[in-house]
Amino acid sequence: MLRKLKEECGIFGMYAKEKQQNVAYYTCVGLSCLQHRGEESCGIAVNDGGVISYHKDVGLVSDVFKQHVLDKLPNGKMSIGHVRYSTTGAPKKENAQPIVIRYAKGNLAVVHNGNLTNAVELRKELQENGAIFSSTSDTEVIAYIIARERLKTHSVEEAIMNTMKYIKGAYSLIVMSSQKMIVVRDPQGFRPLCMGKLGEDYVFASESCALDVMGADFERDIKPGEVVVIENNELKSYDCKNGQKDGLCIFEYVYFARPDSTVDGLNVHLFREQAGMYLAKQAPVEADFVAGVPDSGLDAALGYSKESKIPYGLAFVKSKYIGRTFIQSTQDTRKKQVLLKLNPIKTTVAGKRIVLIDDSIVRGTTITRLIKILRRAGAKEIHLRIASPLFVGICYFGTDVAKKDELIGVNKTVEEIRQEIGADSLEYLSLENLREIAKASNAKGFCEGCFTGKYPIEVPDEIQKDSFEKIF
User: Fold this and answer.
1) Rounded to whole angstroms, what are the CA distances from 131 to 124, 156, 164?
2) pLDDT tens digits, residue range 225-237?
3) Which domain holds residue 239?
4) Deepest in the core among 11, 231, 326, 362, taking most CB within 10 A?
């Protein structure tokens, strides 16, 4: 299967000081900045005087939210939005978010970035007690548990804090009730989530780039295990971490987040540039120029060039109008899309020794094809440098790596991988160097499961993981 990793989802929320603001417009802008986190479906929900109106569909933000669609959404005091890739649940309209439910205590809308590791057992329990699901996403499971717990408590925030005792895994949430907005980050802080101010209005986003583009001031990151509640323009914060260890997904820095975002105090571009510099020290080679695989390898390539003093250049031109390869329905279509997306600059490549930088090798099929493209363009030597360690672990927390046999690094040595992909040399960033770069983050711990097979919390075994994928 020819594809890069599917990325995380992206969430956005706005709480306006004054009523009847065009919160849907700002949410649409925020989602557009988070589009890299999910190109499959998107949605926006608006709270107008306690009434929640929403629109969601399969497609990009620019396609789903044409002006006439945005105009149909009312002004209001609150709005939440979501862009999605399916890591749990099939890629269809029913699984688009926000999830909006109406229950005994009123209305509730939920957006979620992450993946629950105990979604299967929770869903089964809810169904046995009469719950009827309209989607196959684990976000609906979260919404149902919040609704259930709300019937036992005095407030929706209490219900959410009770829900946190049941759900396990990665969940950055924004929940909108009739009167309140509640923002939640799981105790490990697997997925990024930050807060800003646009004048007197509060804005929340998966990444800080969404705040920057709309002119909002970054305030701070939501802390792991923190629950932020806004009601009547007053913000309150609750700590529900309960002594659990941090576990920010380190792949947010390696690949998922946008370079202009700052995640838990560390700028993503600087992290990747540092990764390239460490690679140059760790794995030097004689070459004519350094090039990155667009777009995720470009920052590390710049760092490698700076440290090695080898000139930085472009090996590929990327078409901006071709969709991402892993979204396509067949492998043949995906292969054709790779050829359309990246075209080599033959006059630059021909007869040259190239240091090619990419962020990671997961399955190995994409980089194999890119190396073949460079060979056909006349490259003399291709020295591949990977700005992360060898990928050997599956992910339970929001990416689409479901089985170890999909990973080229599990059953092959580095030399065997080099031979298979056709590079003249291959080196990965060491785990020690990755950890050294990550020390600049405010996160006190990381999930490195994709590189070590060890996780911050207990995870399902392989059989449970396979069952999980089949059910959803």
Assistant:
1) 9, 19, 19
2) 999 999 999 999 9
3) 10-244
4) 11
